Amino acid sequence: MREQWQALTHKSFDHGRRPFNDKLAYLGKRILDLQTSLALLQQPISPDDTSSQHMYVFAHPSLTGLNNITPHAKSMALDKKRLAQLAGTYGLDKVTRWKPRKTENLESSGQDVVLAQTIYAIVGAVALQRGGDVAAQVARERVLAPLGLK
Questions:
Q1: Distances (CA, A) of 141 to 10, 35, 94, 100
Q2: How much is the average pLDDT of 58-76?
Q3: Which domains are assigned to the chain?
Q4: Residue 82 has what pLDDT?
Q5: Are the C-beta atoms of 116 and 84 separated by less than 8 Å?
Q6: Mean residue pLDDT across the chain
Q7: 117, 120, 111: which is closest to 93 by C-alpha?
């Protein structure tokens, strides 16, 4: 039960006196990064991708999606604004415990970052409670699939 509240608690809540979600978010981000890479690997290659037209010494069918895994593609897939919108659809914006700098302007107080971190922390908490396989499944089905990565 402790991890559940901890996953929903940002460091700003109660000035960090209560357990907060930084370490859970770190673990969850690693899991989501891996699952994002695996999902990008399975995506079809765009026809205008000229980098795949180079002659390779070794070509294997399982390597065809390798060009999809770029830092830009991963950062776009896990963009904090997209994750914050997803968190809003799950209602996490109503239950996440944090103290905004400006209560009249949550966006400038960093609400997107807080909600993205909450998504990561929930995946991390699932990994601690249920194991890596369940956390990977949650990452694929509840985070990546709604964001358009299958």
A1: 24, 10, 22, 30
A2: 76
A3: 2-42+61-144 (1.10.1520.10)
A4: 94
A5: yes
A6: 79
A7: 111
